[in-house]
Amino acid sequence: MNAEDTINKKFEKAKLLFDEGLIQEFKDLFDIIPYSVVARKLNTNNVRFKAKLEDPLNLKLGELRTISELLNVDAAALFSLAIRDKSVNKEPV
User: Fold this and answer.
1) What's the rounded Cα separation, in Å, for the pair 30 and 79?
2) For the chain, how many structural domains are there in total?
3) Residue 20 lies in a domain
4) Is residue 93 in a domain?
5) 43 Ramachandran zone, left/alpha/beta (phi>0; psi -120 to 50)
């Protein structure tokens, strides 16, 4: 098994967990799939992408769409997860 097969398996696992509703926070996806691979696909550097994961609303819609395509999941469901993640982590004023 080569590195590409391993990455594909991780994406498949993330999709399965996402589809089953077991991913509760947006950043949980990146406990499974390497954020460096996704950052490369988005043509951004690792540090910038990792910072965006702390607040998924900083991701552009196109970036979220690309992530949904990489995972082969519904884009609207991924958008919803990103929005829900922000509202859960929102600090009280």
Assistant:
1) 15
2) 1
3) yes
4) no
5) left
Specify whether the CB–CB gap between 52 and 59 falls below 8 A. yes
Summarize pLDDT for 24-33 with one digit per residue, the tens: 999 899 999 9
* Tokens (6 digits) for 82: 């990103």
Token digits of residue 25: 């926070």
Q: Are 56 and 49 in contact (CB under 8 A)?
A: no
Q: Give residue-wise pLDDT tens across range 42-87.
A: 999 999 999 998 889 899 999 999 999 999 999 999 999 999 876 5
Q: What angle do CA 72, 25, 31 make, to 5 degrees?
A: 70
Q: How far apart are the first and last CA of the chain?
A: 50
